[in-house]
Every structure is written in structure tokens, then in C-alpha cells.
Design goal:
Oligomer: single chain
Number of helices: 11
CATH class of the largest domain: Alpha Beta
Strand order of the largest sheet: 1-2-4-3
Structural class: alpha+beta
Low-confidence stretches: none
Order of helices and strands: EHHHEHEHHHEHHHH
CATH topology of the largest domain: Gyrase A, domain 2
Number of domains: 2
Strand content: 5-15%
Length: 244
């Protein structure tokens, strides 16, 4: 059965912009820490944090973190996600969680739009599901523990198999993640996931994430000859979802 993408912001640093502002001002202020904290995040917050990010002083941005729960993504997508190593992940186990009722999967849009291709794809997913169940039962019948049976039977499951994952990133890593994965050349599935993540954190830390996205929204595309040529479209999409 086809899975649907869902992204939930589980938790985040309370008043993240205040934490970032305090950390940054501590670097430049001779005042004691109580004074620095007391004035952090006052009326100049937006101007101060935007300047901080523009000059590339990003270590204070690491003092805010965000935790997301994500479901309805493929194993192909999660393999891309975990390449962002400055993050913490907890992923649903294919060893301890079985697929006896049939596994959920992701259908790429190009296949979904073609009736014949979709029918073929869904038939194949059904065949794989049957093979998985057969192998689990076969191995259990041979005396293997259920976890061992699932552990070995999962080798037939495809990249399309749906997974669930918890992700925690600090704000600096999120800025990098958005710059990479919101680019139109990024794979569609992780691009949509990144967009939903951005829409969740923007209202919470607008000064930090106001201009998040690929380099083309602020200047020149880094893809060179491989550029999609749709920078204006990207700017419109992200600006339309920018808090006032």
C-alpha cells in the first residue's frame, strides 16, 4: 500500500533565537553572562541575527536544535538523509518490526503518472511482499527466532519500502541541509520533506530561517551548466512562505 509523507516538529530549543543571540553577544560583549542573557533577543534581534548569518558567524546558531518525526519516506530517501552526519537519527528497525501485513511503499511521481507503469510497480511490490512473508515463515519453521527471520528476509525489501525516522539537527546544520536539499536538482522526495521541515521551523525562528534555501535564492546558482534555470520560481515559492 502506498505511504504518504508526514513531517511533525516534535520539539525544539525554547525561544531558539534568544539562545542564539545570547551565544553570539557573549562573543563580543565585556558584560557578565547575566547581563548578556538579559538583553539577548530584544528589539534588535532580527537585525542582529541576520547580520550574524550574513557574515558567516554560525557557531552561535548551533545552540538551537529541532527534532522532527518523519514518516512516509522511502529507504532511498532515508539513505540520503543520514548522509547529513551532524544530526541524530532513530529509524524504524526492519529487524524488530515485521511486515507481515504487507509493507507500505513510496511510488515515484513519474511512475504514478503512467497507468501501466504504476500497475507494474504495484504488482511488483505485492510480489516482493509475498516473498518477504514466505521467507519469514520458512525461516521460523526452520527454528530461527522471529528477529533473525525478519533480519534475513528483509534483504528482499526494495528501496521503495516506507520507513519512519526521528531526526534532530541544530539550526546550523538545518541551514546547510536546506541549502542542499531544497535545490531543484535534489531528488524530489527529500526536497519535499525539506520544504515541510522549513515551513515548520520558519515561524519559530524567522530571523534564522528567513532566507533559507539553495544558493540561487540569494545569488548565483552553484550548479553551473547543470542549473535548472528556475531560480525565480524557487524564490517565489520560498518567499511566499516567509513570515512577516
Amino acid at each position: 500500500m502506498e505511504a504518504q509523507l508526514k513531517v511533525i516538529l516534535v520539539s525544539h530549543t525554547p525561544d531558539p533565537e534568544r539562545s542564539i543571540s545570547a551565544a553570539a553577544k557573549l562573543c563580543y560583549s565585556p558584560a557578565d553572562i547575566e547581563k548578556v542573557i538579559s538583553v539577548a533577543g530584544k528589539d534588535d534581534r532580527f537585525t542582529f541575527l541576520e547580520k550574524l548569518i550574513n557574515v558567516g558567524h554560525l557557531s552561535p546558531v548551533e545552540h538551537a536544535s529541532f527534532t522532527f518525526a518523519i514518516e512516509g519516506i522511502s529507504r532511498a530517501c532515508s539513505h540520503q538523509l543520514v548522509r547529513h552526519r551532524l544530526a541524530s537519527y532513530s529509524q524504524r528497525s526492519q529487524r524488530y518490526v515485521g511486515e507481515e501485513e504487507g509493507f507500505s511503499y513510496i511510488i515515484p511521481p513519474s511512475i504514478k503518472k503512467d497507468d501501466e507503469a504504476r500497475a507494474h510497480f504495484e504488482h511488483l511490490m505485492g510480489e516482493i511482499g509475498n516473498s518477504y512473508k514466505y521467507l519469514v515463515e520458512k525461516l521460523k519453521g526452520k527454528g530461527f527466532e522471529v528477529e533473525h527471520a525478519r533480519e534475513d528476509a528483509r534483504f528482499v525489501l526494495p528501496n521503495a519500502a516506507e520507513t519512519k525516522i526521528m531526526v534532530t539537527m541544530n539550526a546550523r546544520e538545518l541551514l546547510h541541509f536546506f541549502s542542499m536539499r531544497l535545490c531543484n536538482r535534489a531528488q524530489l522526495e527529500i526536497r519535499e520533506m525539506a520544504f515541510r521541515m522549513l515551513m515548520l521551523v520558519k515561524p519559530i525562528a524567522p530571523s534564522v530561517f528567513r532566507h533559507s534555501g539553495p544558493p540561487c535564492i540569494r545569488g548565483r546558482c552553484r550548479e553551473g551548466a547543470r542549473s535548472c534555470g528556475r531560480a525565480d520560481e524557487m524564490r517565489r515559492r520560498l518567499n511566499e512562505n516567509t513570515p512577516d
